[in-house]
Amino acid sequence: AARRGAFEISQPTEFVKADYASARRDIALITLALFVAIIAVVLLVMRYNLLRPIKELLGGAKAVGQGDLAYRVVAPSGGNEIAQLASEFNRMAESLAEQRRAAERQAEERLALERELRHSERLASVGRLAAGVAHEMGAPLNVIKGRVEMLRERLDAPVDNRARNLHIIGAQTDAITDIVRQLLTLARPFNLRREPIEPARLIAAVVELIEADAMKSGVRVEVSQKDHHPDFVEGDQALLRQSLMNICINSLHAMANGGRLLIEVAPEERRKNGGTFVGLRVSDTGSGIPPENLAHIFDPFFTTKAVGKGTGLGLSVARRIVEEHDGWIEAANLTEGGATFTIWLPATPGDGRPGEP
User: Fold this and answer.
1) pLDDT score for 357
2) pLDDT above 50 for 157
3) Which is more confident, 78 or 144?
4) What is the average pLDDT across 92-106?
5) For the packed helices 159-187 and 81-153, what is the interaxial angle rounded to 10 degrees?
């Protein structure tokens, strides 16, 4: 029979346990290393393919938001969504830049058109001024010329006739002088003597000056004194009196068939440029101001009155005086008929000593 044998290999139990623990540790380390490597690869891929393009897009959005429409982002290679987003962003920036260039061209064209329009308006104003001067001075000069020829042709005329002709010549010369004086008032700088003036006293002084003309025109002058205004206006008495009187006379001329002229201190105050303004308001019951003339009523020599009824300089002088006092004039039509003018003047507290107009 064949001979059989056997051998036995044995190892102590503690060695088996040690090998098993070492294998587990090696597997864990290898797994951890693989996990770290995978994370590193994912982060690296995300940084170059996702985070950097997003950061580039954020930088482009910030630049475009600050007005730099020439900024363009670097689109990543490939046709993924991030690359498409970068390309769309660049197209958007290019479209915005083109719109800006178009807007700038339109703004330049509009500015050039406004310059031409202002130039045309200045030429029209100069033309109206020249026409007004020629018209207003031409009439008295023609009268003077005619009277001089009469004196020359009739050397033996009675003394009364010669005196009358000389008187007419003198009156027409005074009219020309008055026109020149008002033109100088429009052009010359004022030397204002500012002082606190009580509005009620200023109105009373003007009413006294226009009373006779109002009676001739059949106009009833009323002064509203509902409340005593606590503030004074600050300015030059004589010039402010002239400005308010010019407006009142203009209103009297608008009521050829009689009416009512109301002069009052505006119940409300205005705030402008950090200052307080008091309004002196003149309202009439005349025919009002045609809407197409509202923008021109303060132009020199602009008038809708009949020949010989005014030079068209009164309101221009009034506005110039008020503007020299850092104020302004508002004109409007009343719903019940007639017109109203409001002179807004800087207010000063009413604790000073008012000037006597």
Assistant:
1) 44
2) yes
3) 144
4) 87
5) 160
Cβ–Cβ < 8 Å for 308, 300: no
**Higher per-residue confidence, 51 vs 245:** 245
C-alpha–C-alpha distance, residues 207 and 213, integer Å: 10
The residue length of the chain stands at 357
At which residue do the structure tokens 């119940």 appear? Answer: 267
Q: 167 with 143: CB under 8 angstroms? A: no
Instruction: Report which residue type is found at 211.
Output: E
Amino acid 10: pLDDT = 60
Helix (H, G, I), strand (E, B) or coil at 306: coil
Q: Is residue 283 within a helix (H) or strand (E), and if so which, with residue range?
A: strand 275-284
SS3 223: strand
Q: What is the pLDDT of residue 329?
A: 93
**Which residues have CB under 8 Å from 344's CB, separation 6+?**
270, 272, 277, 278, 279, 322, 327, 328, 329, 330
> Is there a contact between 347 and 227 (Cβ–Cβ < 8 Å)?
no
